C-alpha cells in the first residue's frame, strides 16, 4: 500500500502543475515537507496517469510541460 503522506505530496505537486506553477516541487516544498520529489515520483506519475485516463479531454487541453 502506498504511503498516504506521499500520496498527499503527489496531489499537491500535480495541483501545482495543473495551476501552471513553473516548478512543481521547489526547495521550499522540500523544506516544509522534508520530502523530495524522488521520494514520491512513482505516486505522482500514477496520479497523473489516472487523471489522464479519467479526464482525457481536460488533460489533453493542458499544455504544461512535464516536470
Explain what the structure shows.
- It is built from four helices and no strands.
- The protein is mainly α.
- The termini are far apart.
**What does the overall shape look like?**
flat
Structural class: mainly alpha
Strand content: under 5%
Radius of gyration: 12 Å
Helicity, as a percent range:
55-70%
Instruction: Give the end-to-end Cα distance, rounded to a whole number of Å.
Output: 25 Å
Secondary-structure element pattern, one letter each: HHHH
Q: What characterizes the major β-sheet?
A: none
Quick take:
Helix content is 69%, strand content 0%. It has a domain at 1-42.
List its salient traits.
flat; mainly alpha; 69% helix
Q: Layout of SSEs?
A:
Layout: H1 4-18, H2 27-33, H3 37-54, H4 56-61
Helix pairs in contact: 1-3
Amino acid at each position: 500500500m502506498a504511503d498516504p503522506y506521499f500520496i498527499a505530496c503527489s496531489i499537491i505537486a500535480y495541483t501545482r502543475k495543473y495551476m501552471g506553477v513553473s516548478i512543481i516541487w521547489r526547495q521550499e516544498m522540500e523544506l516544509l515537507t522534508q520530502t523530495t520529489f524522488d521520494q514520491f515520483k512513482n505516486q505522482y506519475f500514477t496520479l497523473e496517469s489516472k487523471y489522464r485516463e479519467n479526464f482525457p479531454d481536460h488533460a489533453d487541453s493542458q499544455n504544461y510541460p512535464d516536470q
